[in-house]
Amino acid sequence: MEGYDWVKLRSEVREIRENTVNPRSRTTYLNSYSRFLAWAAFNRQSYVSGGFIDTIGHVEDYTEQQLCAHVKQKLAQDRTTPPLDFDKLQAQDFVTWLMLAHPAKEMTFSHTYMVIAWNLMCRSSNAFGIRHSHMEWRGDALQIYFAHMKNDQGGDRPRDPRHIYANPLRPEICPILALGIFWACNDFDGTDLLFPGNNQYERFRKSLQRILTQQDVAAELCRQGLKATELGTHSMRKGAATFCSSGSTACPSSTAVHLRAGWSLGGVQNTYLRYEAAGDMHVGRTVAGLPTESSQFSILAPHFEDHEEWVKTGVKLMFPGIPERLEFVAEYCLASLVYHYTYLKATLSREHQLFETPLFQDTDLQHQLLNLAMEAMEANNLEFAQPEYPRTYHYCVR
Question: Which of 150, 142, 158, 156 has the alpha carbon at shortest distance from 126?
Fold first, then answer.
């Protein structure tokens, strides 16, 4: 192509590339990515590429703010080293990080509701209708009973519990930790409702939309072909059911998933296929995000072995006014708060209300409870055998 102005063409291409994202947006993206990368380097280092970890050095040498500034500087200097392993990164990590990092009380409520609703696979009306009298701790799980469901209008079905499990491996999506943060930051007002107040559905919807319409989140949704208006309160239930049904080659039975989600099986299946606790337990551990192909699938929740005076004192100080029937549940919530103390300090905003509570003000209390929780976790988790399908999986790999 003789006579063509290649210099002009290259100039036009460069101009188009530079104008794809205006400078203000680039700055916003860089700030947001830097904050998220700093959080990932502290708490999800497996998500960060080895090359980028080598570039930023030892993360333990920095505070969260210092690491954020350091990451931002390295991103500006070196654009050839990919900072994240995007194959491992999951969307819920990003949204949960945003909600946890927000100091507002609304986000504490929203995060707790989102995690609880995801684990229960329930409709919003069922989640907001949960009462303290519907909750109890049995064995290694929090059990929640529903008094009424859409597919049981006559109330003829037995009241079977949904099992909710802690995920100490991924605290950002752990329902027991979320419940502990929520109770520690909110007063018990004498009502029996887990989420007291009027029009809680609208309250959560607005909080979620506020997150999804933030400039950096909206840009990521757009990149994936989504709009903020396409995600809502229904997304947790349908997303959780999809995750349980297709997140592994060793998924729970479809019957157990359907029953937990409250869907009618249709025809004679409603008569002959019934709830069984073991099936719901399998669904509960799967939807909690525990690794299905590992012995850690059966990991216990952070807990205390003995009901010592330190534990009783911790429950009273952290959850003043808690109903007596919830004190046993509160022990597990307290154990999760203690077990994830370092994670919470590194992840949450310094202005978060949680840091004004006794556990984060009394170093002696925190050390005593942490020692009790660590001793119990180390002793009891060693006793658990692997589920059958992880053993089969490892045998096949070998």
Answer: 150
Q: How far is CA 373 from CA 304, 313, 332, 335, 381, in A?
A: 5, 15, 10, 6, 12
Answer yes or no: do 274 and 203 share one domain.
Answer: yes
CB atoms within 10 A of CB 229: 10
Q: What is the pLDDT of residue 187?
A: 87
Residue 198 counted as domain residue: yes
Contact between 282 and 252 under an 8 Å Cβ cutoff? The reply is yes
Whole-prediction pTM value?
0.72
CA 217 → CA 5, 170, 212, 309, distances in Å?
A: 40, 22, 6, 46
Q: Which tens digit of pLDDT belongs to each residue from 290-315?
A: 998 888 999 999 999 877 789 999 99
Does one domain contain both 63 and 116? Answer: no
Please state, in angstroms and rounded to a whole number, the distance separating the CA atoms of residues 160 and 148.
11
Segments forming the whole domain that contains residue 115: 91-303+383-397
Report the number of distinct structural domains present in the chain: 2
Q: 150: which DSSP letter?
A: T
For the four alpha carbons of 4, 10, 12 and 16, in that order, the dihedral sign comes to: positive
Q: How far apart are CA 217 and CA 212, in angstroms?
A: 6
Residue 11 token pair:
């100039």
Is beta strand 141-144 parallel, antiparallel or unpaired with respect to 135-138? antiparallel
Spatial separation of the C-alpha atoms in residues 371 and 168, rounded to whole Å: 16
